[in-house]
Amino acid sequence: MKHRIVVLGAGYAGAYAAGTLARRLSPADTEITVVNAVPDFVQRMRLHQLAAGRDIEAPELADVFSGTEIRLRLARVTVVDPERRVVAVADADGGGELGYDTLVYALGSHGDDHAVPGAAEHAFDVAARPAALRLRERLDRLDRRGGGGRVVVVGDGLTGIETATEIAESRPGLSVTLVARGELGARLSTGARGHLRRACDRLGITVMEHTSVEAVEAARVLCADGTALASDATVWTAGFALSPIAAIGGLHVTGNGQIVVDRTMRSVSHPDVYAIGDSAHAIGDNGRPLPMSCASAGYTGRQAVEAIMGRLTGREITHTKLAYAYNHISLGRRDGILQMVDDEGRAKPKYVGGRKAARVKAGILTMSLWATSHPTFGVPRHKRRLAAAPDATTEKALA
């Protein structure tokens, strides 16, 4: 019987892990299934660009995994039962259950409205492709109306800053306001904060600092200080949340729902489960939890692959780098900020800004898409076989 590897989620982390495992493990004794709710690979780092009007490539997963022998199941994960080692899914045919021997949990995160009244009903987000496309349609209608439309972006994290600057640059006929709970760019160095402010001024973005949003209505945003901001399109980017599926299934999770893992991305409560990307509460080389980011997805995905490879083939497990060295922010197409951070996650004085930072970010985006959508590149001539028959006894011995 083949060893069944099931990967939940085909974002940056999940697609990379599935493709790499398929490239390195022999299909003679392993079977890899990827479960994803949509048929396309979503470039989540570029969804704010999609919303603003850019054409963003979305390769079909069937094409991405073509030639890998990966089984693609287009379905929504509803239950993870680590005691029975099964996953329940729902699809157009009614769904069913998938058994696994090794589970890679990469379901990622989604936008979090923090239960602010009206945010779910009236605000847009850029956490998923359908949501970004809905925002794009609204912005298109505002542009067709002849200009003067008002866009309010709530949240001054990386996503909020990138969304506000991209919309302001791509659609100069719209008025863009960025609402920041604290100081704009508070996590950046003094020089980078100045660069960010100049970019907002150049793009005509109104910045409201030290402002909390209490409610969102169809045509305005209500702030805690009594200010009412007129808005034709409110974009909510004030944080991300995770699905409760892992917690409901009995996996050991943090308060926000991330699966607690060891240094090899293995669940501390269920050794058959690995968590990667936003789904994992992983401690980096600096002793601090890795942030939810594309960079973390890459690091955790690589470590999980090495751990799974080592345990299944009886080889020594390689510890890959788990680093958090910088924040990279796009400020439209021709500007950006690359902010270096220290081991405590604090901004270093040094930063790179302007076109150079924008080119580096564009290169990262291009490389991430290429690496994910070419899983068969560099296929080894001799794929690794499992150390022994993939039964429970073997799994325990390799733990």
TrEMBL record:
<keyword id="KW-0274">FAD</keyword>
<feature type="domain" description="FAD/NAD(P)-binding">
    <location>
        <begin position="4"/>
        <end position="297"/>
    </location>
</feature>
<dbReference type="InterPro" id="IPR023753">
    <property type="entry name" value="FAD/NAD-binding_dom"/>
</dbReference>
<dbReference type="InterPro" id="IPR051169">
    <property type="entry name" value="NADH-Q_oxidoreductase"/>
</dbReference>
<dbReference type="Pfam" id="PF07992">
    <property type="entry name" value="Pyr_redox_2"/>
</dbReference>
<comment type="similarity">
    <text>Belongs to the NADH dehydrogenase family.</text>
</comment>
<keyword id="KW-0285">Flavoprotein</keyword>
<keyword id="KW-0560">Oxidoreductase</keyword>
<protein>
    <submittedName>
        <fullName>FAD-dependent oxidoreductase</fullName>
    </submittedName>
</protein>
<dbReference type="InterPro" id="IPR036188">
    <property type="entry name" value="FAD/NAD-bd_sf"/>
</dbReference>
